[in-house]
Amino acid sequence: MGRIKQFKHKLGQVFDANLETKQWGNYVDYTIVGLIILSTLSVFISTFDISESCERVLHVIDIVTVIIFTIEVSLRIWTADELSPKYKGFWGKVRYCLTFYGMIDILSTYTFYLAFIFPLPYQVLKSLRVVRVLRIFRYMRSFRLLQQAISSKSKEILISLQVLLVVTLMLSFVLFFYEHEAQPETFDNGMTSVLWAFAQYIGDPGQFAETPPVTPVGQVVAFAVGILGIALFAIPAGLVGAGFSETLEDEVHKETIKRNKEKMLGAFERKLDRPTGFQIVPQHLSICDLQARIGLKVEDILDVVDEADNFRLINLATTQTIDERPQDKLAVEHFIVNKPYGYYIDRGSKVTIISPSSLADAAIGNFSYYLALIGGFNYISREVGEMRPYKSYYSFDNRQVEPNLAQYMEDLEELTSRPGSWTLTPLVASGANEPSYPTIFHFSAGGAKGDESFTGNNLIVQDMEAYQAFYQDLTAELEQRFEMTSDHQRYHNLSSPRLFARHFSEGRGSHNNIVLRIAWSACLWDSRRIAIAKTIADALNRHFESDIDKEYSSELKIKRSGY
What we know:
Number of strands: 12
CATH superfamily of the largest domain: Poly-gamma-glutamate hydrolase, zinc-binding motif
Mean pLDDT: 84
Strand content: 5-15%
CATH architecture of the largest domain: 3-Layer(aba) Sandwich
Low-confidence stretches: none
Oligomer: single chain
Number of helices: 19
Helix content: 40-55%
Strand order of the largest sheet: 6-8-7-9-12-10-11
CATH topology of the largest domain: Aminopeptidase
Distance between the termini: 23 Å
Largest sheet: 7 strands, mixed
């Protein structure tokens, strides 16, 4: 990210209009609020009979505040696309300027300079200065709640007003038909009767009430119009009141969720992994465990999971083979995102750990994340998705519409286009829908299922000599240290053209792509799983980054909550 882009991003965060956030941007917000109040007071004081020296002071205050507001408003327009992508580009900026706050900003600031071009009346200039008071609505929680209340009931209000309009028009025509003959001078056409009816709603500005209907039907219509006049204000007011009450309840609910989210994050406290000495975030916590730790009800936990962007429910039963007859075992998984699809980190390494199934497969993302962190490798994961049932980015069909897949592939290409690039994609095997395999680790280089040679067609590894040396070294160490055996393409087929690994190796990035399927017993349930990840990471460094001196990240020694 360039310096200008970074500065723009930080400015967008500063202009968040949230005085409750604890950041230095608050001082900017409070300064703007203070200047708005000062500007309003100067206008108020100017209405009194004051001395010339006081007028000069007020004039200076006006000029200074206008200059500051001009800079602020200009920066707001410039950073509008940080609020929403719809404000990008020239027409996006125009769209922002036409919003409620955008129009207030422009009317209260830029119109000051019109006085240098057009001879505007004094009253107009004073009125435009008063408009600045409306800018304070941006920082008022009560006004935001009112906006939300009206917005939540906008359809109901619109429908009620439409009904009132149609009924009023109908009654107006009935009124004309009966009153025209009795009072031809007053009700001379249909428009007059319509104006008479609507005049009853807005206080009779045209003095129509001085000539009330004289016919029995006209008087009945007048009575009905009077009732509708009450409804005209009562119904929208009632709807807004109901919306306001619902909005307040929603706000209380959101605050509750926010507090509960902090409690849940605290429950995911890093624990010491004794075999390695690293501080590790738990892969998951069961619902019962969370209840016991932080005292939340099941529905509270589910509300947090539903609203939060870094918690999700997982079913641990999917991690057990079918012969174990698993029952549903709900748990909460904690993850991190910094991209629309998941998590991305560039450590400048030649090795990239790809976790395309983090969303679909329980806890594989946690294992892959620590594999990358321990080894000092690049990392990219798929944690977010819009398609149900969720699928891994590892296996995809180009005909399917997956919004973030293109961005994922672009970022992956950026990470793996370096000379000597290698990728390792950890996937899971031996789940509820698969049989148990005699081996724990299943390595693949793109060959057909059952082809345990290091040659053949459809390979996704170009440097097979280096891969074979890595495979033999690592598998021997895994068996020696953990008594866990491995195989090469014995049980899994990688020949499908739908595999992104093949699509990727055909010109999108690295030509050396290793796929490693790991039994859940090793990457989830085994107490030595981090030591296993460390063993894999060390082997990757020995074979593919031996020219780089690396140290284990200090993050692995820090004890806190979350990633």
